[in-house]
Structures are given as C-alpha cells and as structure tokens.
Design goal:
Length: 85
C-alpha cells in the first residue's frame, strides 16, 4: 500500500510515458532541432487538451530555449526562450 501511494505521489501530473506516443524520441528531437539552433533534450511528454505534447528544452541554468511538438501531427506548437537575456 505504501509503495503504491509513493509511486502515485512521485509521478508528475499529466506525465505520459513514451510508449503511448506516435513519435519516437529521436523523431521529436529532429523536429525540435529544425525549430531551434540549440541542442535540445526531452524534458517531458504531457497530455493536454490538444493531445500528447513533447516538451523539449536546453539543459542550462538561468536561461534557455524550449520547443513544444504535437505528437499527433509532428508539428511545432510553439518555441521560445525563458530566463534572463
């Protein structure tokens, strides 16, 4: 019982495993690379109203870039920067 509660508590809300996605991790990163000049990594896959969304971003402190990719269509939803410029 404690193990099940701990697993539920540690699982991020809205998090989806890559096994449920149409795109592979490599395909999502390739699409994201076309939208950004930075080296991206997969931050998470979330379930939103539009469906599954890959959230890609840079592994930096203080400033970075992000790209959101729609899993169903393989299109970039949006991209931008965050943090100090």
């Amino acid at each position: 019982m404690i193990r099940r509660w701990l697993a539920e508590w540690l699982r991020p809300s809205g998090h989806v495993g890559p096994a449920q996605c149409r795109l592979s991790e490599a395909e999502a990163l390739e699409i994201g690379a076309r939208a950004s000049s930075s080296r991206l990594s997969v931050l998470r896959v979330t379930r939103e109203a539009r469906g599954l969304v890959w959230v890609l971003g840079t592994a930096t402190i203080g400033r970075g870039e992000y790209v959101r990719v729609d899993d169903a269509s393989g299109e970039v939803i949006d991209s931008g920067t965050w943090g100090k410029r």
